[in-house]
Amino acid sequence: MRRLYFIRFAFAAAWAALLLASGSDLTTGAKLLLFLYPAFDVAAAIVDARSARATGPVKGLYANMAVSALAAVGVAVASTSGVADVLRVWGAWAVVSGLVQLLVGVARRPMGGQWAMIASGGISVLAGASFVRSASQDDPSLTTLAGYATLGGIFFLVSAIRLSRSTPRG
Q1: CA–CA separation, 104 and 59 (whole Å)
Q2: Nearest CA among 131, 135, 130 for reference residue 85
Q3: Among candidate residues 93, 92, 153, 96, the one with its CA nearest the CA of residue 120
Q4: Using an 8 Å Cβ cutoff, are 151 and 13 in contact?
Q5: Where are the alpha helices (H) located in the chain, listed in sequence order?
Q6: For residues 32 and 15, is the Cβ–Cβ distance under 8 A?
Q7: What is the chain's alpha carbon radius of gyration, rounded to the nearest angstrom?
Q8: Distances in whole angstroms, Cα of residue 117 to Cα of each of 54, 86, 124, 127
Q9: How far is residue 9's CA from residue 4's CA, in Å, rounded to a whole number?
Q10: What does pTM read for this prediction?
Q11: In the chain, is it the N or the C terminus that has fewer CB atoms within a 10 Å radius of its CB?
């Protein structure tokens, strides 16, 4: 799981940088990035579920896969309508997936290194509500999504480091 968390950190950091570089316009590149983030989340949850079968509960991971797959499709559709619709879909995804992440983190507490995932899940719920609210502003911006991804990536990095310290290598 350590390696997956390090990969998720690197992906989030690179994704955020690319989104910031693309600005807040819904260019083809930005639309691809917006689809790619939840799609990557699905792939990461699949890897996580495969490795977690022997060590813990995976129902929450399956729920996350479904929610993120729906978000990827929803963001792709919303990106044809505008930034506000993207923020609404992204916000709904952040709320639901944040709740799932929080529950999975709580269930995995005995493994160690999960406090950051618990905090990240809670923050995701709050951030998602903020995205939905910001969609109604006069000039909504996608740049807040880069901050969200960066913070989420930092939480994955912290968890990876904590797991490295609490899990014997081998």
Answers
A1: 9
A2: 135
A3: 153
A4: no
A5: 2-22, 28-52, 59-78, 83-107, 115-134, 143-166
A6: no
A7: 16
A8: 20, 25, 10, 15
A9: 9
A10: 0.87
A11: C
The rounded distance, in Å, linking the Cα atoms of 85 and 51 is 35
Q: Give me the pLDDT at residue 57, please.
A: 62
Cβ atoms < 10 Å from Cβ of 148 = 23
Residues, the chain: 170
Mean per-residue pLDDT over the chain, rounded: 88
Q: Decide if 72 contacts 39 (C-beta within 8 A).
A: yes
Structure tokens at 6: 């390090």
Cα(112)–Cα(166) distance, integer angstroms: 6
* Residue type present at position 53: R
Q: How far is it, in rounded angstroms, from Cα 82 to Cα 80?
A: 6
Q: Which two tokens stand for residue 109?
A: 């507490």
pLDDT at position 163 is 73
- Residue 109 DSSP label: G
12-56 pLDDT, tens digit each = 999 999 999 998 889 999 999 999 999 999 999 899 888 876 556
